[in-house]
Specification:
This protein has 18 helices and eight strands. By secondary structure, it is α/β, with parallel strands linked by helices.
């Protein structure tokens, strides 16, 4: 092959790759990909139109050698990586010969529908959008009622359950009980990720106290937990409320919901949506939205297994290399101090409501798995570890607001093998043993008011 043709082929190949990456960056809202792609396209144009042949040849050789070296390093990092939870779980399952379902929630729901079952992919409906059934704005803080719900998979098998009368993860009929003794509030750890329904913490507490209600939902934070108190909990006035706090991201949730101003109105006023009486509207609107999602989506949804659908993109964009390089250049951690006043206000308002019927509040502090995984690699891991340094501060704010403290982090810190309580000893939620330890700790700690 003649040298000028060789150089042109290399430059054209780079231009085509940059164009593809630009399209990917624009369609998936990844600005850094789009920016570097534009720079690469401009360089290719300058090289093709302005530079002499001999310089183009040298530049082509430099591109090939540099790209080859970077890809070799990236492949080595990918093959030896222990920081990708999905890859670790899949590799561990393979070594242990444990079957692992690699489908997404959307795919599982579609397959169940193909078998004649009306299934939906579970999650946090409040993050879908502010919905407007019958012309009245409503933000759901629960799921679709009485539906087969596909939740999550970290053990190899999906959590699939039938939602209750208000779209939560409870046995059907529990809302009809005369007295509810315990209500649990929190995110995915309370929701029951990602174990069988009878193995999650709230289900285990229910074995000792049958009138226990699970109002946990994946992805929610303190604002939604307070909203749930106003919408659902004060209607049933339970004796004990378990407020779960996950150190990995709950404080961040307070800043994310500037996009849903309706939620902030719960804290600053007497505002309520009356959700318990609007379940039919919520079901109708969420069902329509979920049906569209199941029909239109052609790729796995973003989440725990999103990377399974794009390993080539990850390698070509040097994802593993960038994860390791970014902390060297410096990580920008969010400072929780900026949101502590808001967090304090939410807890104080919650305490005011629960005090009105004589209930007792417990603040259940949950640790991130990253405490036990050794040296962090990426910025997001370092950030979660940074949040863990605020443990005493969060507990102190809760205590000042009138909560009794149940610090699960201290219990797991003292365990001889903390990672044994997480699926495949990897980042994520608890396994059945972990949830059991949490339930046992809570049952030893709670006392019912007179």
């Amino acid at each position: 092959m003649k040298a000028p043709i060789f150089a042109n082929i290399v430059v054209i190949s780079v231009a085509l790759f940059a164009t593809s990456l630009l399209f990917y960056g624009l369609t998936n809202a990844v600005p850094i990909y789009a920016t570097f792609s534009l720079i690469a396209l401009i360089l290719c144009a300058v090289i093709s139109l302005r530079l002499p042949v001999n310089i183009r040849i040298n530049f082509a050789l430099l591109l090939i050698s540099t790209a080859s070296a970077l890809l070799i390093v990236e492949l080595i990092l990918v093959s030896t990586s222990t920081d990708d939870p999905t890859a670790v779980k899949l590799a561990s399952a393979k070594n242990l010969r444990i079957p692992f379902d690699t489908r997404s929630r959307i795919q599982v729901a579609r397959d169940l529908r193909a078998d004649g079952l009306e299934a939906f992919a579970g999650g946090n409906p409040a993050i879908l959008q502010a919905l407007e059934p019958n012309g009245n704005e409503v933000v759901p803080i629960a799921g679709i009622s009485d539906k087969l719900t596909v939740y999550c998979n970290e053990t190899g098998e999906f959590t699939i359950y039938q939602s209750d009368e208000h779209g939560f993860h409870n046995p059907n009929g529990i809302w009809g009980k005369a007295n509810i003794d315990i209500v649990a509030l929190g995110d995915s750890f309370v929701h029951g990720a990602c174990v069988k329904s009878e193995e999650n913490t709230v289900a285990l507490i229910r074995e000792a106290h049958p009138n226990t209600l699970n109002l946990g939902l994946a992805g929610i934070g303190p604002w939604e937990q307070f909203a749930i108190i106003k919408e659902y909990v004060q209607e049933i006035e339970p004796k004990v409320i378990l407020w779960f706090y996950y150190e990995g991201n709950d404080i961040l949730n307070l800043q994310e919901y500037d996009t849903i101003p309706l939620l902030k109105r719960y804290v600053d006023s007497d505002y309520r949506q009356g959700l318990m009486d609007r379940q039919d509207e919520i079901d109708q609107t969420l069902t329509t939205r979920m049906d569209q999602l199941l029909k239109e989506r052609t790729v796995p949804e973003k989440g725990v297994f999103s990377r399974l659908g794009q390993p080539v993109i990850d390698v070509l964009t040097l994802q593993s290399s960038r994860i390791r390089l970014r902390p060297i250049l410096g990580c920008n951690h969010y400072d929780p101090n900026e949101l502590l006043p808001t967090f304090e206000r939410v807890l104080n308002r919650s305490s005011e409501f629960v005090d009105a019927w004589g209930g007792k509040l417990y603040f259940v502090y949950l640790p991130s798995t990253l405490r036990y995984l050794g040296s962090p690699v990426g910025c997001w891991q370092k950030e979660q570890l940074y949040f863990s340094t605020f443990q005493d501060r969060f507990n102190s704010i809760a205590a000042d607001a009138g909560f009794s403290i149940i610090d699960i982090a201290k219990v797991i810190d003292a365990h001889p093998d903390p990672l044994s309580m997480y699926p495949f000893r990897s980042f994520g939620h608890f396994d059945a043993d972990g949830y059991e330890l949490v339930a046992e700790t809570i049952l030893r700690s709670i006392e019912f008011p007179e």
